[in-house]
Specification:
Two copies of one chain form a homodimer.
Chain A (H helix, E strand, L loop, with lengths): L6 H16 L6 H10 L6 H14 L2 E3 L5 E3 L1 H8 L10 H11 L10 E10 L3 H13 L7 E5 L4 E2 L2 E2 L4 E7 L2 H9 L5 E11 L2 E10 L7 H7 L5 H7 L2 E11 L3 H13 L5 E4 L15 E7 L3 H8 L4 E11 L4 E2 L3 H8 L1
Chain lengths: 339, 339
């Protein structure tokens, strides 16, 4: 049997489990091989079959005969553990990847958007749900839609751990996807903390560039308890998560029109458009480009961490069906069902 | 009286408090104005005197008449609070600033090096000091020297809060300073987590570029509990903090000689030299340059966070006298004195 100490094997095993976790139905080694090839991993059907025998024996996959393999709950857990090695990837690449893959159609109001997933102990949900509600109410969240999944349910490829609940919030990268489908290439430059004064963005207090980090900046700010979304919600003064984007200045008018359409779909999250070629909040842009401030999708989650709740967030986690999301105004009803 | 809501005023007040905190003696408004000018802040003596009347009235400074002002303990506390606004600065600029300012002389073994400061509740010190010891023993710290300050003492410009102790560890940027003084311009590219296998660096698991972040990458990894220095110390397998540096390939031989001298001064922390122009741990370097892996100065602190101890770290905090540091082998004696 192959030794688990070999880092290359660990990586390939993880890749196979990932494919299975992201597949809604059971699939065979041939299909797995095809999907892996698309992400740059070359493995023969034969090699994959060997791995699958191994994963069967570990209880991570289930052999359904001619229908192929299915990932088990233990396999999903394994994917979540730290034993499984992640490939180093810069956030900027992930942004481009997801923006290209999402297929939300603005006129039909259907398709998939990009979801952040955060999970916390179930006991905290009812106590803090009202604070989450307020962030949306004060227009500090990205869009007006979200979703909640109970313990042991799945959200995308994420299985909610026992005694926990998961909250899915709209990732602001969904805007990149929508803009891209309308011919506007939006570049995500950095994630930041922005000080609000009386509801107005005043200045950046922290900045982390997407092309220089493998961890999502907002996850970092939230884990480090550096936000103050709660105060921003209550008084208009506080520190919130904001993403800095750029678009070609020539597309600014079209972008503003699109932003109105996006707003109607309850996906609006643009805090400010800059002026062509001019700095936005002291941050300069190259000639020919215009800066945009977009509210972080995780702002409603940040208030949980601010209140001392242990919450783990995975930004840009998966693609998720737009029509399975609910409006934040319905959230308390949904929470009552869960508890 | 000036309103504290004005962000510009907050910034200028902070700058003045910083100057006072970094000055060993009391100083007057003229001297403060000179020092501020060097860091790009233009304020007239008159304006500074106005501010000092304000800070006196807040109890942050003390008027010593002709000798000028001195910062009070309340003023130092104020500097630590989040109310005081930090200027956005990228870590790469701070690296260059400190490397230029430090003056450690390798042949005389004297002068100032750069210190990280971490503080924790005093009660945890004796319980975990042995774990810190082991990180140095297994050569996973930066150098072999450190310092500890008791509650209400100061370490550089940092005043240790009540019931806490502060640990000063050598910041790996000290190497940049030493190399610079010997004609080798060392560039700090990114902070990272590196997986060790049987004591050997295997691969990067997370990366944050210094020129794209305003928060030190190692502080981020430690706060996020993403390290596993404890396991690396015990078994040789784990995840540790490493900084990726580059030097001109032409200076590689001299750099290796220097590294030996540095080691003799107990400041050694180079984990690996790359090969000229070749990738190091899969990370490519521009033609004409060579990569270097340097151990993070905060690795010994990371074990505290891994054990659930709340510890706040400030990387690259201040310049500190080399001869005031102690060897890690003396640390248990020092701890006994403190407790």
């Amino acid at each position: 049997m192959k030794s688990f100490r070999d880092i290359k094997i660990k990586r390939q095993l993880q890749a196979i489990l990932h494919v299975l976790a992201n597949s809604e139905e059971s699939i065979g080694s041939e299909r797995i091989s095809e999907i892996l090839r698309l992400s740059g991993i070359e493995l023969t059907d034969r090699a994959i079959r060997d791995y699958l025998i191994l994963t069967d024996s570990m209880g991570w996959t289930e052999n359904l005969g001619r229908k192929g393999r299915r990932i088990t709950n233990r396999g999903r857990e394994e994917l979540e553990t730290e034993l499984v090695v992640d490939k180093v990837g810069f956030v900027s690449s992930k942004v481009e990847d997801l923006a290209f893959r999402m297929d939300f159609d603005l006129s039909k109001k259907q398709g998939k958007i990009i979801l952040n997933i955060s999970y916390l102990k179930k006991e905290y949900l009812s106590k803090y749900i009202n604070k989450i509600y307020q962030v949306y109410e004060k227009n500090l969240g990205m869009g007006k839609l979200l979703t909640i999944a109970d313990e042991e349910q799945t959200l995308g490829s994420f299985r909610v751990p026992k005694n926990h609940v998961a909250i899915g919030t709209i990732c602001s990268v969904s805007l990149n996807g929508i803009f891209l489908r309308h011919g506007i290439p939006m570049t995500s430059r950095f994630g930041s903390l922005v000080e609000l004064e009386q509801g107005e963005p005043k200045r950046f207090t922290q900045i982390i560039s997407y092309d220089g980090t493998t961890i999502d900046p907002l996850e970092i700010f939230i884990r480090g308890r550096m936000t103050n979304v709660g105060s921003a919600t209550k008084t208009g003064n506080g520190v919130i998560g904001v993403s800095f984007r750029e678009i070609p200045s020539v597309s600014l008018n079209k972008a503003k029109e699109l932003a109105k359409e996006v707003e109607k779909c309850l996906l609006g999250g643009i805090l400010a458009f800059g002026t062509p070629n001019q700095p936005l909040l002291d941050m300069s842009v190259p000639y020919g480009r215009t800066g945009i401030l977009v509210l972080a999708g995780l702002n409603p989650i940040a208030v949980l961490a601010e209140n001392g709740v242990e919450v783990v967030s995975k930004a840009m986690n998966c693609l998720f069906d737009y029509n399975s999301l609910i409006q934040y105004t319905e959230i308390e009803k949904l929470v009552k069902k869960i508890i």
